[in-house]
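We examine the record.

___
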Amino acid sequence: MFKDKVTALLEKALEENQSLFLIDFTVTLDNKINVVLDGDNGVTLKECMAVSRAIEHNLDREEQDFSLEVASAGATSPLVMPRQYNKNIGRKIEVRTTNGSFEGLLTASGEDTITLEWKARDPKPIGKGKVTVQKKEVISFSDIKEAKVILKF
């Protein structure tokens, strides 16, 4: 019952800010509420605070003791939802699939697939040496085991 009430409050808070979306949500047996958000344009501290307040201010601590943590998905967190791929088009990502690993520029994200492109050095068809070729891989979401954005410093 407590989790249902928190879920309803969270859904209402996310309806008010359509650019935010839920990555993870848990309520433990000892009423520790953990919410992880992401957004189409990232997540600000102000947005996390607004969601936190929308939940906390509508629960009664006299009725139920709880702790609440609202956070944004970290920069090194894996991509878990198709909406996260859309916001990372144009960035370099690493994808582990059932068929191997790929690293390249995310150039497209559709309903069921993503497209990665990268340059590779392949042997020349005739003669010695190598030639640079453009590679492209279309990967189904169902084949992705893990995907992460590669950060450059």
In short: The CA atoms of residues 92 and 105 lie 4 Å apart. The longest strand covers residues 113-123. The first helix runs from residue 2 to 16.
